[in-house]
Amino acid sequence: MSTTRHLVNRHRRLATAPPRTAGAGTEPVLGSTAGPVTATEPDPPAAPDTGSTEAEPDTAATDPEPATDTPADAARAKVPRLRLTLPAVLCALTVLLGAFAVWAFASAGSLRDEPARQNAALTDIGRTSEVKGRIGEAVGAVFSYDYASPARSDRAASTYLTGRAVQQHKDMLADVREQAPDQKLVLTTTVTGSGVEFLDGDRARLLIFADQSNTRTGKDEETTYAAAMFAVDAVRRGDAWLIAAIDTFTR
C-alpha cells in the first residue's frame, strides 16, 4: 500500500515529464486528474492564399455552354448554300427580264397603235384648221335651200357629199323640198362652231354646231330659228374634203 510520500513523488514526476500522445489502446493513468487523451486526425493542409477574396465558380455544378462557331466555320457552311441558291436566283432574274422585255415591246406597240397617238387633230394645227374650214363651208352649202333656186342645192350636194351622206341628205331635206314651192321657203344654215374629234390622214370626224333660219316668204312672211348639232365623217379627195356620213345622234 502506497504511502503518502510515494504519492507526492509520483505526482512530481508526472508534472515534470514531457507529454505523450496516447496511441490507440492506451489506458489512462490511474489517479491522474487529467482527462483521458483521445487520438485525433491531423488537419488537412490549408490551401495557399492567392490574395483573392472571391470564391471561384464551381464549374462542375453548371452545365458547359455549347461551343460557338467561328467566322471561318460560318463561311465554310455558307459556301454550299450559296452554290445551291445562286443558279436559282439567276434563273429567276432571267425570267423577270424576259417578261419585262415582252411587256415593254407590247406597250410600245399599243402606244403606236393607240388612236390618240395617230390623231393629228391633237398635234397638227394647220391640217385641223383646214378641215374645219372646208367642212364648215360644205355644211352651210348643202343644208341651205332656196325654193327659187333648187338647182343650187343639188350642185352643192353633188360637190360636197359622197358615200352614205348622199342619201342621208335627201332624206333630211325631203320635207323642205316638198313644202318649199307652196310656202316659198328659204332655209339658211350657218355654222357657228366646229371641233375636229379625229383626224388621221385622209379621214376626219367633226362635231358641228349650226344656227338655222327658216323663212316663209309667201303671203304671211314668217321666220323661225333653230339650233342644230350633229357630227359628220369627212374624207379627202384630192384637195377637197367631202362629207361621207352624217350623224344626228338619233336612233
Number of helical stretches of at least 4 residues: 7
Instruction: Examine the secondary-structure arrangement and name the CATH architecture of one domain.
Output: Roll
C-alpha Rg (nearest Å): 64 Å
Spans with pLDDT under 50 lasting ≥5 residues? 22-42, 46-64
What's the level 1 CATH class of one domain? Alpha Beta
Label the structural class: alpha+beta
Tell me the strand percentage band.
Answer: 15-25%
- Strand runs, count: 5
Span between N and C termini? 166 Å
User: Strand count, sense and closure of the main sheet?
Assistant: 5 strands, antiparallel
Q: Strands across the major sheet, in which order?
A: 1-2-3-4-5
What percent of the residues sit in helical stretches (DSSP H or I)? Answer: 40-55%
CATH topology of one domain: Nuclear Transport Factor 2, Chain: A
**H and E string:** HHHHEHHHEEEE
The coarse overall form would be rod-shaped
- pLDDT averaged residue by residue: 75
Explain what the structure shows.
The chain is an alpha+beta fold. Among the domains are: 84-113; 124-247, Nuclear Transport Factor 2, Chain: A, CATH 3.10.450. Helix content is 43%, strand content 22%. The chain has helices at 4-16, 71-113, 115-118, 125-142, 150-160, 164-172, 174-183; strands spanning 145-146, 185-200, 203-216, 222-237, 240-247. A hairpin with a 2-residue loop joins β4 (222-237) and β5 (240-247). Mean pLDDT is 75; it is low at 22-42 and 46-64.
